[in-house]
Amino acid sequence: TIISFPDRCYMTLTTALHLHRGGSPKGPAGTGKTETTKDLGKSLGQYVIVVNCSEGLDYKSMGRMYSGLAQTGAWGCFDEFNRINIEVLSVVAQQILSILSALSATQSNFIFEGQNIRLVPTCGIFITMNPGYAGRTELPDNLKSMFRPISMVVPDSTLIAEIILFGEGFNNCKLLAKKVFTLYSLAMQQLSKQDHYDFGLRALTSLLRYAGNKRRVCATLPDNEVPHYSLMLIFGYRKITSAK
Questions:
Q1: Residue 232 burial (CB count, 10 A)
Q2: How far apart (Å, rounded) are the C-alpha atoms in residues 115 and 90?
Q3: Three-state SS for 112?
Q4: CATH number, domain containing residue 50
Q5: pTM for this one?
Q6: Neighbour tally for 92: CB within 10 Å
Q7: Residues near 150 by beta carbon (within 8 Å), at least 6 away in sequence
Q8: Which of 36, 46, 52 is nearest to 3 (CA)?
């Protein structure tokens, strides 16, 4: 891989699976916690189901999801897991423990919530957390012990932009990536702080994908008729940022 940091995350998550534990990437928003888990599942041919957790989830709905994961062998990635109420987490801890204990014992069937269900050994449970944000719950110690944690840091957006541009068929990707990152950095610092404006990594990635689509539309045109790559990015920025 070109970016080395996800390798360490992959090692942590696969080690957790080998030890019959869950994986727990944690860090600020936009650091790739969920995307890294999804990408690992894709590389291993695993179906990954992402669940956005909230205060409204109760232990019954969580139990149904865990039962489905155990019986199908899919992976579950529970985003913002520490938003769930502490009362629910205490029951969820017992549900997860029963699945992990059955995996450790290499059982093909086990008792879950009073029912005898089958267990597919490829199932996995992952949680992501944003520590320090308002409305987040501290996980109980018995729940923490079931997951192998890894801290995620803010990625190198310039390098990510360069790789995406290269994959979309642009030339001179290093210079274009630096320009796009500078544009978004200045926009974040100097433009409106309203919530509906997003100048983070997700918005930057959307812009590059949009510019890549425009680049492919012009693929059959002669070189002298293709708009300059910088203009494609500027038009894409206006299109994505302007009010709909």
A1: 22
A2: 20
A3: strand
A4: 3.40.50.300
A5: 0.71
A6: 22
A7: 8, 9, 12, 13, 23, 24, 25, 26
A8: 36
